Amino acid sequence: MNIFVGNLSYRMQENELEATFALHGDVQSAKIVLDRESGRSRGFGFVEMPNAVEGKAAISALNGQEMGGRSLVVNEAKPRQPGAPRRREH
């Protein structure tokens, strides 16, 4: 199950994100999305959990929880639509 995690602190590290979700089950991967130009966090990421039951439990437990001074937004990631343009910021 691919899980979207939004409103992350810009100081959050991938290992911290993984450890937070690991409290709720097996974590296959944890990735924080970085800005291509600056290399800084964009404030969101994705966690892959192979067990859907554990993934749903993590979503329920972590959505709205405060972490790093910010209230997390956690939900099941929606697949990107084929051919949908990527949002570009200038």
UniProtKB/TrEMBL annotation:
Record's keyword terms, sorted: RNA-binding
GO molecular function: RNA binding
Annotated segments matching region Disordered: 69-90
PROSITE patterns linked to this entry: RRM
UniProt domain RRM: residue ranges: 1-79
SUPFAM superfamilies reported for this sequence: RNA-binding domain, RBD
Entry keyword RNA-binding: yes
Annotated InterPro entries: Nucleotide-bd_a/b_plait_sf, RBD_domain_sf, RRM2_NsCP33-like, RRM_dom, SLIRP/GR-RBP-like
Annotated protein name in UniProt: RNA-binding protein
Organism name: Pontibacterium sinense
